[in-house]
């Protein structure tokens, strides 16, 4: 299972970097979103524990086996909230730039400023 996580994370990082290098700002924003998702998958893969029971069982059942670590779940939820906020801010900057410069091509925006 860890090989599957590694391959999927690597492919998603590659797709995200490829989209970031595009000239269209909207496609670059999609690249950021793919990178955010790849980071969440990486956190999930690095914190995966082959425990017998989930982290939220009661004290009576904890003696039967080892439990998973709940910290990874909390980190992933926090990362999802932060990535949504960052992605929303990025999209609002793209909307402002497209309204001001009448284009979403990053090369044309550089030519207009320069």
Automatic annotation (TrEMBL):
Its main location: membrane. It is found in: Cell membrane. Keywords: Cell membrane, Membrane, Transmembrane, Transmembrane helix. The keyword Transmembrane applies. The chain crosses the membrane at residues 6-21, 28-49, 71-96. It comes from the Bacteria. It is a multi-pass membrane protein. Belongs to the CPA3 antiporters (TC 2.A.63) subunit C family. This is Cation:proton antiporter. It comes from Candidatus Thermofonsia Clade 1 bacterium.
């Amino acid at each position: 299972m860890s090989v599957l996580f590694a391959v999927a994370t690597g492919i998603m990082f590659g797709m995200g970097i490829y989209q970031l290098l595009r000239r269209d700002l909207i496609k670059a924003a999609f690249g950021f979103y793919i990178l955010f998702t790849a980071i969440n998958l990486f956190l999930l893969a690095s914190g995966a524990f082959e425990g017998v029971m989930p982290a939220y069982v009661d004290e009576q059942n904890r003696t039967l086996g080892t439990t998973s670590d709940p910290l990874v779940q909390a980190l992933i939820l926090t990362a999802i909230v932060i990535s949504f906020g960052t992605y929303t801010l990025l999209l609002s900057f793209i909307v402002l730039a497209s309204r001001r410069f009448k284009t979403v091509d990053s090369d044309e925006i550089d030519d207009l400023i320069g």
